[in-house]
């Protein structure tokens, strides 16, 4: 019993010693670990793009390992800050430097966007137009004019009509204004107000309109005398579904012909253009993207073409660009439609949006696109089968010779 007690006592004593013994790193080892961590952090922070350029391709990420000497930029800033008689906004200076760097690439479609511009760009592609009165603004008889009001939007609810002339906006005369100038002043944050001085006939009247989120679907349509007219104003995230629903409606109403109006449509998402072209084309090449001589991607139509075989005319003009040209080119070259109007804009490149720190955006040209017949239409545009213009005099007199020509081709 005594032997067992002694053994048990030694075991307890041994366990107690180990329980109260702590191991510490020596100061030298601890210093080496801290120094190594700091060095790795410095290298990762200083050479992060070089590191990503080396390992990025493994994960499908692109990065460039080169760098620029920005010492002259720093010198410019130092002299500006030291001598400028005024207040400098460093945020705007950095945005301006970024914008200038990207603009120097020499490609009009490769652009830098500030955080606010980035938000506006993404909202436009998602179909969220933002705040405004919900009216299509144009120039008629050399005056800023409401060409049409959008259903269930603020302009219509306030009693504005097509052909109303806008003489003043917030007491500023619109004489000599461009459409873009007028739109930039009339649009604004939802809930705020804008004052319009309107000329209707021989009478003028002031309207104070509360801006609201604009309900402006990218697709509108009508059916008249057996012709279904589909107007697409942009190619956003909702356009494909809206166009398909319109095509189904055309089929249910038994339309005999279709007019697809892409005039003034400056484009949008390439994938949406493929969706729209797929309404007429069954398992056909719509567009091919190339980087240099390398095929990046070939995009084909689906296999459920609701409007295949229905006589179709596509209306185009100099404002029809990018995704609009992809649709027009594919339908023309696959002989699914005739083109009427004026030569298109000629934008044959593809841009990829890349998010930057702080909410900014880099939109960079990554490829060129080619029609099914292998044409890149950059600067050349697409020539219609029937070329006919639309003059300001036509607009002033509410006539549309391009639509008239389309109807004639369709036999109506």
Describe what you observe in this structure.
The chain has 412 residues and is an alpha+beta fold. The chain folds into 3 domains: 73-104; 131-213, PDZ domain (Pdz3 Domain, Roll), CATH 2.30.42; 219-409, 2-enoyl-CoA Hydratase, Chain A, domain 1 (Alpha-Beta Complex). 35% of the residues lie in helices and 25% in strands. It is built from 13 helices and 19 strands. The protein has helices at 2-19, 27-46, 48-55, 71-83, 90-103, 115-126, 154-157, 179-186, 239-252, 270-277, 323-333, 392-396, 401-409; strands spanning 111-113, 131-132, 135-140, 143-149, 165-169, 172-173, 193-200, 203-210, 212-213, 219-224, 227-232, 257-261, 285-291, 294-300, 312-316, 338-341, 349-355, 361-370, 386-387. The strands form 5 sheets. The chain has a 6-stranded mixed sheet, sandwiched between helices. Strands 1, 13, 14, 17 and 18 form a 5-stranded antiparallel sheet that branches. Strand 13 and strand 14 (294-300) form a beta hairpin. Helix 9 (239-252) packs parallel to helix 10 and helix 10 (270-277) packs parallel to helix 11 (323-333). The chain is globular, with a radius of gyration of 31 Å. The model has no long low-confidence stretch (mean pLDDT 87).
């Amino acid at each position: 019993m005594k032997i067992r007690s002694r053994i048990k006592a030694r075991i307890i004593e041994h366990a107690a010693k180990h329980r109260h013994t702590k191991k510490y790193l020596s100061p030298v080892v601890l210093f080496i670990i801290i120094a190594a961590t700091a060095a790795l952090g410095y290298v990762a922070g200083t050479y992060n793009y070089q590191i990503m350029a080396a390992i990025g391709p493994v994960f499908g990420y692109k990065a460039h390992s080169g760098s620029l000497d920005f010492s002259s930029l720093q010198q410019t800033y130092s002299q500006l800050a030291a001598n400028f008689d005024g207040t400098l906004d460093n945020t705007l200076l950095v945005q301006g430097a970024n914008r200038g760097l990207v603009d120097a690439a020499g490609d009009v479609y490769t652009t830098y966007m500030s955080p606010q511009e980035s938000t506006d760009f993404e909202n436009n592609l998602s179909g969220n137009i933002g705040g405004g009165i919900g009216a299509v603004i144009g120039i008629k008889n050399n005056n800023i004019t409401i060409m049409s009001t959008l259903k269930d939007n603020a302009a219509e609810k306030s009693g504005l009509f097509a052909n109303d002339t806008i003489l003043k906006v917030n007491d500023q005369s619109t004489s000599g204004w461009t459409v873009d100038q007028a739109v930039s002043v009339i649009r604004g944050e939802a809930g705020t107000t804008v004052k319009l001085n309107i000329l209707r006939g021989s009478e003028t009247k002031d309207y104070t309109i509360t801006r609201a989120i604009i309900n402006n679907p990218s697709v509108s349509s009508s059916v008249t005398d057996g012709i279904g007219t589909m107007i697409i104003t942009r190619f956003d995230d909702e356009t494909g579904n809206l166009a398909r629903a319109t095509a189904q409606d055309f089929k249910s109403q038994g339309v005999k012909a279709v007019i697809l109006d892409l005039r003034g449509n400056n484009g949008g998402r390439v994938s949406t253009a493929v969706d729209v072209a797929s309404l007429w084309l069954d398992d056909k090449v719509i567009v091919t993207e190339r980087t240099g001589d390398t095929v990046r991607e070939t995009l084909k139509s689906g296999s459920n073409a609701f409007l295949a075989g229905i006589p179709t005319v596509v209306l185009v003009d100099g404002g029809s660009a990018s995704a609009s040209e992809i649709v027009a080119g594919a339908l023309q070259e696959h002989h699914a439609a005739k083109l009427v109007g004026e030569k298109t804009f000629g934008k044959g490149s593809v841009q990829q949006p890349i998010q930057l720190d702080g909410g900014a955006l880099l939109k960079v040209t990554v490829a060129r696109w080619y029609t099914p017949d292998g044409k890149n239409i950059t600067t050349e545009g697409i020539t219609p089968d029937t070329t006919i213009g639309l003059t300001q005099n036509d607009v002033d007199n509410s006539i549309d010779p391009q639509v008239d020509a389309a109807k004639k081709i369709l036999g109506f």
